[in-house]
Amino acid sequence: MSEDTVHAQPQGVEQHEFSAEVGRLLDLVVHALYSEREIFLRELVANAADASDKRRFEALTDATKALPADAAIRIHPDKEARLLTISDDGAGMSRDELAKNLGTIARSGTRAFGEKLSDAKPEDRPSLIGQFGVGFYAAFMVADRVEVTSRQPGTDVAWKWSSDGKGAYTIEPATREKPGTDIVLHIKSDADDFLDAWRLRSIVRKWADHISWPITIREGDEDKSANEGTALWRKPKSEITPEQYTEFYRHIAHQFDEPYATLHWSAEGTTEFTSLLFIPGARPFDFMEQSRESKVHLHVRRMFITDEAELLPAWLRFVQGVVDTEDLPLNVSREMLQSTPVLARIRKAVTKRVVNEIRTRSKDTENAAGFAAFWENFGPIVKEGIWEDSDYRQELAGFARFRSTHGDDPVTLDDYLGRMKPGQEAIYYLTGDNPEALAASAQLEGYKARGVEVLLLSDPVDGFWPERLSSYQDKLLKNVSQSHGDLEKFEAPAPTGEAADLMALIPALKEALGDDVKDVRGTERLVGSAVVITSEGGPDLMMQRMMRRSGQTLPPNPPILELNPRHPLIRDLAARVARGESVVDYGKVLLDVARIQDGEPLPDAAAFTQKLTAILASTLA
Length: 621
What we know:
Keywords: ATP-binding, Chaperone, Cytoplasm, Nucleotide-binding, Stress response. The chain is of the alpha+beta class and 621 residues long.
């Protein structure tokens, strides 16, 4: 929403036009989410609770912002006037804040929101409301006009924001008896049920029963309580139903799936806290675009303090929930959060509990499909911990899952160890960008022929953690593209075809390729392919590609070109050299073929095409 166009109106009324893109987004919110209209109340009540929490927190250091004793969130349906009002005693908004907060839709990007909404299944669409910060605008699903009157504590000035959600909104001076906010919805003719107290009560019970602020609904002349108002995490587990856990998870995570795991416990001793955490059952739409910091909510004595306390490490950032303690002061500062020993102990205990839960579930053979789905969703994130967390590195590696040449099902490192060949001293792996391309890589030919299993690692983090892990159960991890000479330890199948004499070919190819290669040599790793490139003494080929993509400048580290002496093409080239013929063009094409085979970009695609065309033409002549 833009404030670029402002039309002065009588008596201090300002009119601001929506941008065309925002108008389209509002249309998407109103119509694409039509079947889930009740979520508008969930979002408005949640906003009211946030505003009340903010004022209560600010009042700790500013007495002028103290809340009234009867602070509550009040819902007032008026059937005769066709109005629904949601009021709170919270922090309120100034004129500029109304323009910014209600005049800016979807800071994550309106276009991104529209694309996600268009692609999402109907049952997944409501979760996008919370993810993209457009919850307030769900009000236009049931209202043809929305008015917001707000006043901040410590000031007598109030402001009113108003819009029909079509082309513009207005801001004007207003009056409000006490600080806080009123949201007035002019209910559409087809939304009568949202003016019935029983319907509103059922929505509050479904979505907001856990909110600690009292929520009331006007019935006749009386405001009647509509929620239990007890922090769910403070209740005994025996008094909480699975449905209540799920509702709370969906509220805090802005998701609509079932949680994969629910962890609810209280810690006693040196540091006391209560924790209610959830491992999601599905990956959020924009998960890979989110920040790496954990957003678990920190509460002190049931009061929300921050979701930036980083209560879990970045490699568990998908975990959602609440940690509540009485061992911190209510006015804890950001600096204190970073340094206090209390929070350090809480972080350690919470991390350990979550890791133990994941490890336990990884061993549950009766629910193996559930863990497989979890790993598909969040395994690439958990593996970041193998790279960056020395305290949990070996433990995470123990329950991690990997694709391998053994079959289609993911395997553990312990599975791998149980299938190692006699005398095998290393765990072999290969990294790449694509699992299908990895499975067909020429790098694997010799290992497959000898029955040696190789892990196939295609997640971006897989280029990093094996080097940091180094070994598992005293077995070194070795990249097959850097393990020259290892295959000679294993019995090979009977060779097919006569081996070429490479004594003259290798020097000829070294001369032809010059600085483009570090070395040229024969290899036992190939069976069906003529050549392959490998690396030694530095990052492997996948890591080099990743570093170049990130803009890093790498020192020269040309590949090694390895030849299959039994391949007909290599035998023919050896014969050409023996006859005194040049193999310069052949050598350059072979190197480019090996690059393509390994997913490497060609330094000069045009030159490769010309040389290959010339060779084909001479062969067919």
